[in-house]
Amino acid sequence: MTAAQKRIVGKAAGTTAVAVVAALAVFIISRWITGGTIDERDWLETILIPIVVGMPIACYVFAQAEKLQSAYMELAELNAVTERAHQQLKEAHEIIAFAARYDKMTGLLNREHFLDAVRAAHQAGERDVLLIIDADHFKRINDRYGHMKGDEALITIANSIRQAVRVQDEVGRLGGEEFGVLLKNAFSSTAVDLAENIRRHVSESLFCGSRDGAPVALTVSIGGATLADFPQGLTEVLAQADGCLYRAKRAGRNRVEFDTTLVQLVQSMARQDERKQQSTKN
């Protein structure tokens, strides 16, 4: 006999015993009230009828209850398994979504999603500024220290860029050693300051190329363009930022170059500040 069968018989026997006692009590009280006599046949009927009728019924009822309990436990276990599978599926979806959106090495937005952000900002007519950033002489690092160290250098540059910009700004890796930054709602002076801040953060970053711990200088060249200045399309914005980047490269690297309109405006604002300071002194 299995443990479940033992439980069923035990519960049925207990219930039947209670029924027998109850039947006897009712029978005795009723005869006492009516003043009737109790013979041997009455005793047997009062005891046997609950046993013969009640025991099978009780066994059936408790057997069904046991099945329901077993089914409930299986259902609860299945529900737990389903919940775990759902959680694993959710985590897998999040991993896939992250991998599809972000560059796996640097953790920055990948090229596709970064350009989508730039395109959306351009279509919305927002006053954002696009920066294109390229690591200077990066091939030398790969050739001298190997590609593993080159990857570490890219991660160092990516972290420096992320630290130098604001929370609302978008940062992406465009490919190879080239990065992009979308400065959200940035005034001209703010854009220049942030670009210089990026350049300075990278140049001050600590990167060791060899095991002896000797530091290796990392620098970047940056070209920028204001989205609103090129309503024709995103291609013109990218071309302008690229042109400024190559101008920075030709001018000696480790520098920032913006479109002419932006530079002139910043210089004009700087001259106005100087005149205000001089007038205050006088």
Automatic annotation (TrEMBL):
SMART domains referenced in this protein's UniProt entry, alphabetically: GGDEF (SM00267)
Alphabetized Pfam families for the sequence: GGDEF
Biological processes per GO annotation: cell adhesion involved in single-species biofilm formation; negative regulation of bacterial-type flagellum-dependent cell motility
Class in the EC hierarchy, top level: transferase
PROSITE patterns tied to this protein: GGDEF
Enzyme Commission code(s) on record: 2.7.7.65
Keywords: Membrane, Transmembrane, Transmembrane helix
Transmembrane residue ranges: 12-34, 46-63
Catalytic activities: 2 GTP = 3',3'-c-di-GMP + 2 diphosphate
GO molecular function, one term: diguanylate cyclase activity
Record-annotated GGDEF domain positions: 126-261
NCBIfam families tied to this protein: GGDEF
Name of the protein described by the UniProt record: diguanylate cyclase
